[in-house]
């Protein structure tokens, strides 16, 4: 059901771990519905120098975390903010319909981590129109 | 990800067909294919083959051959039993009692009947998955026409006190159905001694073919047909008989019930070796289901801090096949209704793994799983934000 | 009684499984047996096999793969279509239109629904077995939710004007189901062009295995489930998939629809040789069903003065397998409802013989039947008090 | 479904045919429900010297005719009258439940033929408590 890319990122996830004293941390999901994703950012000159994740969730959630962190590493915060879950899924060679929400977690965790950084730095958080902690499991088709 | 070893431990989902069973089936595809309803030789031979299979099924559960009706699987048998009894007894009452941990073939059928004006009570289970007999008794009303309680649970393996439920139903003159899809070959069953009025089974759970099952209906119990049609199965189940499937079911149930004790002793020893190893080697792990009253091949454990689908995928990479009650694996919002019914919190239910052992599993298989599984669990825990080392 | 020659001419009842079909199925019993709902490799391979079969079925009838649902046979498909549409559309109306010559899987289902408060009109047919389109149109009311007319009749082989019925149903916004169990492989079918909303089929009528069939349900048509249960078949048909059966169905329908014209030309030539021979050699004989609009392999004739069961038994002694519409063969009071619906008197219906030809029949088979059959008919006539030489 | 005996009597029926100027003829059944049995008797000194039948009906009906005629040949009329359908079925090694009525035809045809003889000879017909022309098809079990 998963593409080779998904399996690769699930089996060999990039950027697993934590960053001590991270500049920004974002966590979405809740254990009740089974998925939690936490992202750590190291930011220097508005550039994401390093990024790590921890994820409690399915294969697609772990692969999305891995791919999303790869995609924002070295990018500006603005660029990282614009990363959509669709872009993550596409980069993974697609996700099954019932697993699209797992990529949404990644988008959400990044947004939260960026805003955590902004708040810590006295900046106004950017506005997010989605609530990433909602029940997001959904039945495809 | 490296090994070529394959360890199939998902026998509760489905089994391979045993070579003897397939061999028994083969002539009925290409040579001995006649319609059993035909009067000519070819048809009469098919008829004998079916009646022979019927006798085998009857013998396996202590029923009479004329009480056995072949179906297209366990779900059809379950649907037929429940809807059949409901529609046939509507004049007598509209209340059905079942449990919270039944298979969806029962639960979704009950839900359908609720839309048709029936009332259904879903009895609770304790933390081991055993039905609450007091609650069962107390929920009986004048309108109760059917009690349906599964013999053994497919996820956590818990075996129910079927004889006692049979007694309760009999005392109150209520039809008693049991879904024995998981129990056949693993528990000695005698429908007469146990006061079972209807019983569902499916061949592919005991090394028979998929797509064929049976419903036992005690003589004298009237149920409405589910598949209306031709005069097959003494006019109670229409459709050209699945001849090779039925022959395979007969052969498989004969093999599966020939030596239940011996089979169980062997499987249970393997299972306990695996279970004890898991509990020993992997911290923050909990057994689900009853510690003793459980199917001999069933292991159901929850690993804290991790989710089951990822676990399955990693096991798969090592050639190990199991299953999980995680929602992530099913695409639904909630994890297994069975795990929730025994009181597991959602996040623990998500980390559940079922390994169900079968006839070909060996000690080497067990040792291989005991080697691979702890590493995989650790690997996922290391990725988990819930796990603090 | 002497010959070792076997001539199977009961393909309309059931067919043998073709070797290529069985070969395609075999790996799925013992090796590739994984549950298609599982996430692991073994399960995913099963899933692909099922989806491939679904595509083949879809292609054969001009549908989309996601419009195909696998069932446990033709009868289940028929029951599901009729009950499913009835229960799902009860709020819209309670009137169903079908014909007098449908298979019992349709007729007995309708009878059940009548007990549940539905109203059913059974449209007549003419002496050739063709539906009366005027009567059909006139029986439509505001409450009509479903029209179900079979594509081709199993006894007399008459093919119905399905496109016209589809047009009528579409104009009035009524769901149109057709039982195409006998038509697959014998008639070109395109469900879109023909405005068919639902279509039933069964593998064992076109050299596939028994116990597996399919229901096509046009996207957007909502029907209630018949077999409630697990999430299989996109939550519309519960039950562990009959994996080898579904693979066999896919292979069989691919073979059966690869060259319908060529197949028909060959079978029709054989059939006509046999039919003409029978009509020539045996006096007081009448063809039942439409002379042209009929299934290519179907012969249905009535021999005056004799009864069909004895005929079958004597043919059997010579290795020839056919079927009859005689009541004596079915154990019911009345002979075939189809033969009565086309206006045959009881005693003529009793003397009916159906020979349905298939792919392995040869000219030698035909000549053999033409040698044996006249003698047998004469022999029974000589015993008959109705026959005066 | 049929015993070897039934098949033998169906395949090689004894006493098929007619007797010209028979002493008694009995016919039961009606073509509507598919079965007619006609029995011809030749009677001498109250003994059945010869008997023939013609039957329109299933294998069991033909076998029953054959067996029944065999059983009454050479018997007195009283003995023949006492032949029950059960005895015919037993002599055939049994009949399927749904085919028992076919043997009833034989009993009936014999009774009618005997009474036809009695009436022709100015004797009072014996009393029969069954109506053999009723719809007799019946579904087993
Ligand atoms: C026209 C028709 N409909 C339905 C059926 C039922 O199919 P099955 O016997 O596979 O259930 C048959 C064959 O028996 C048939 O000929
Ligand atoms: C307890 C139980 N009941 C019913 C079923 C349904 O059987 P089937 O999948 O053969 O329809 C299953 C297995 O899937 C089961 O485990
Ligand atoms: S995290 Fe639950 S489905 Fe992906
Ligand atoms: S004569 Fe009709 S069943 Fe025997």
From TrEMBL, chains A, D:
Pfam families tied to this protein: NifU_N (PF01592)
Domain NIF system FeS cluster assembly NifU N-terminal: 1-121
GO molecular function: iron ion binding; iron-sulfur cluster binding
GO biological process entries: iron-sulfur cluster assembly
Regions that span the bilayer: none
Entry-linked InterPro entries: NIF_FeS_clus_asmbl_NifU-like, NIF_FeS_clus_asmbl_NifU_N
Signal peptide (UniProt feature, chain positions): none
SUPFAM superfamilies, per database record: SufE/NifU
Coiled-coil zones: none
Cross-referenced PANTHER family: IRON-SULFUR CLUSTER ASSEMBLY ENZYME NIFU HOMOLOG
Identification of the protein by name: Modular FeS cluster scaffolding protein NifU
Annotated organism of origin: Fonticella tunisiensis
């Amino acid at each position: 059901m998963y593409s080779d890319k998904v399996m690769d990122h699930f089996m060999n996830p990039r950027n697993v771990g934590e960053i001590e004293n991270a500049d920004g941390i974002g966590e979405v999901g809740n254990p009740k519905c089974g998925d939690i994703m936490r992202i750590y950012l190291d930011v220097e000159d508005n550039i994401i120098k390093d990024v790590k994740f921890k994820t409690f969730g399915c294969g697609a959630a772990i692969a999305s975390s891995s791919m999303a962190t790869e995609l924002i590493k070295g990018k500006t915060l603005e660029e990282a903010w614009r990363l959509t879950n669709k872009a993550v899924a596409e980069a993974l060679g697609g996700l099954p319909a019932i697993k699209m929400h797992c990529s949404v977690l990644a988008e959400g965790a990044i947004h939260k981590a960026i805003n955590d950084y902004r708040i810590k730095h006295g900046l106004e958080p950017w506005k997010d129109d989605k609530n990433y902690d909602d029940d997001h499991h959904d039945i495809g088709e | 990800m490296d090994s070529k070893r394959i360890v199939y431990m998902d026998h509760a989902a489905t089994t391979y067909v045993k070579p003897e069973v397939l061999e028994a089936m083969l002539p009925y595809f290409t040579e001995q294919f006649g319609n059993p309803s035909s009067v000519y030789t070819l048809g009469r031979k098919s008829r004998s083959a079916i009646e022979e299979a019927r006798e085998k099924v009857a013998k396996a559960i202590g029923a009479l051959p004329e009480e056995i009706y072949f179906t297209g699987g366990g779900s059809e048998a379950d649907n037929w039993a429940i809807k059949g009894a409901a529609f046939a007894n509507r004049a007598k009452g509209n209340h059905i009692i079942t449990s919270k941990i039944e298979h969806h073939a029962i639960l979704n059928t009950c839900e359908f009947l609720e839309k048709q004006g029936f009332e259904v009570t879903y009895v609770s289970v304790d933390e081991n998955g055993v039905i609450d007999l007091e609650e069962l008794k107390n929920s009986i009303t004048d309108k109760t026409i059917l009690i349906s309680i599964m013999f053994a649970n497919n996820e956590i393996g818990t075996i129910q006190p079927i004889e006692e439920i049979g007694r309760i139903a009999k005392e109150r003159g209520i039809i008693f159905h049991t879904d024995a899809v998981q129990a056949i070959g693993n528990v000695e069953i005698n429908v007469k001694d146990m006061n079972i009025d209807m019983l569902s089974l499916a061949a592919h759970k005991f090394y028979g073919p998929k797509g064929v099952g049976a419903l036992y209906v005690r003589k004298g119990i009237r149920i409405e047909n589910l598949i209306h049609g031709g005069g097959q199965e003494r006019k109670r189940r229409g459709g050209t008989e699945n001849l090779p499937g039925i022959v395979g079911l007969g052969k498989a149930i004969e093999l599966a019930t020939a030596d239940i004790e011996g089979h169980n002793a062997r499987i249970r020893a393997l299972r306990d070796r695996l279970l004890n190893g898991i509990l020993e080697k992997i911290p923050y792990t909990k057994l689900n289901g009853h510690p003793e009253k459980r199917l001999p091949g069933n292991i159901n454990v929850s690993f804290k801090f991790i989710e089951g689908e990822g676990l399955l995928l990693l096991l798969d990479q090592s050639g190990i096949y199991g299953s999980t009650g995680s929602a992530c694996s099913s695409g639904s919002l909630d994890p297994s209704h069975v795990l929730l019914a025994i009181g597991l919190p959602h996040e623990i239910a998500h980390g559940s793994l079922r390994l169900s052992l079968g006839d070909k599993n060996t000690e080497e298989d067990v040792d291989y799983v005991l080697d691979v599984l702890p590493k995989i669990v650790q690997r996922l825990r290391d990725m988990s934000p819930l796990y603090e080392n």
